[in-house]
Structures are given as C-alpha cells and as structure tokens.
C-alpha cells in the first residue's frame, strides 16, 4: 500500500500519546488520507464510497443517509450532486412523501461501490497488519462499540467543533 510521507508532526508524538482525542484524530486523518489516495484510481472519495454503501442497504432519503454516515446536510447534498453527475446515484421521489427524495444507486454505482469496498478492505487489512493478529478484531470491535455507544453523538457545547481541512 502507500508509503507514509515523513511529517514533522509525526516526529515525536510522545507528548500526545495519552490523549485519546489526539490519537483518534491523528489515526483518522492519516487513514483517511491513505484511503483517499488509494481510491483516486477509481475516481471516488471515501465520503462518496460511504454514501454509496449506505444507500445500497435500502430505500433511504438524503437526510437518513446523512445521519447514517455522519454528514451534515450541506455536505450530503454536495456528495449526492457529485454521485449523480458521475452517474453513480439518482434522486427519486419517495412513494410515501412527495417532498422527500430516495437515493438510488445505479448499476454503475453498484460496480463503483464494490470496487471501492475492495480497495478499502485492502487498506484496512494493510493498516491492521501493524497489530498482532489476535488484537486486530478486538481493536476494530472496540472502536465499533465506542462509535455505536459512548461516542455515538456529540455532546452539546457552546462553540461547536468543526472538522477542518488538513494544513499543508
């Protein structure tokens, strides 16, 4: 897979290694960057891959998909515009609510989602190779549990935390 680029930020992470937020943020940024690079050959982003995968699980509206993959409404609209322009998904009227649109994945979208899933699986497997075999499933299960339970929803705060684009 990809060879990590040297980074001054990665030189000495020791002061932050006890900070769970920093560890998860750093891991997410580096993994997302690696997955983005790996998916470039398919012309699809990790975000688009997530939306396609979620849309393939049933008839979902834009709002439902946004909740499923953790996107705000504006980002979801932009992502669906990209997918629709690429012929990978379509907005169709909901049979039960004329104001809502169901997101349908096209045949091309199903192929793209399958190919992207295979690439994502390769990246995941490559990353998890850094752990001993008996810890890989435990690690993923622990993260899954945190995301499904304790870290399922952000708490309210007076200054909402924004996801920022990386510098550099």
In short:
This protein is mainly α and 168 residues long. The protein has helices spanning 20-39, 46-55, 62-69, 73-85, 107-128, 133-148, and strands at residues 60-61, 89-93, 101-105.
Looking across the biggest beta sheet, what order are the strands in? 1-3-2
Mean pLDDT: 88
Please name the CATH topology. Arc Repressor Mutant, subunit A
Low-pLDDT stretches: none
Beta-strand percentage range = 5-15%
**Tally the helices: what do you get?**
6
Largest sheet: 3 strands, antiparallel
Structural class by sheet pairing and helices: mainly alpha
The first-to-last residue Cα distance is 22 Å
What's the overall geometry?
globular
For the secondary structure, the number of strands is 3
Q: What would CATH call the homologous superfamily?
A: Winged helix-like DNA-binding domain superfamily/Winged helix DNA-binding domain
Return Rg in Å: 18 Å
Residues in helix, %: 40-55%
Would you state the CATH class?
Mainly Alpha
Tally of individual domains: 1
From N to C, what is the helix and strand string? HHEHHEEHH
Per CATH, which architecture? Orthogonal Bundle
